[in-house]
Amino acid sequence: xxxxxxxxxxxxxxxxxxxxxxxxxxxxxxxxxxxxxxxxxxxxxxxxxxxxxxxxxxxxxxxxxxxx
Length: 68
Description:
Layout: H1 4-15, H2 20-41, H3 50-67
């Protein structure tokens, strides 16, 4: 997961982007990706087997890292 200091840094970078449309796009991508990872980590989908859950968590983390 991302700690609060990292989130603050990301938000500061986005706030300082000259292109507001681009900042909004990246903020939405960041929010969607972190939400997806958070839901997986909380294991809200009880139908997932452990191996499948782990693979989905790894993939979601990679997606979030690519945005960051």
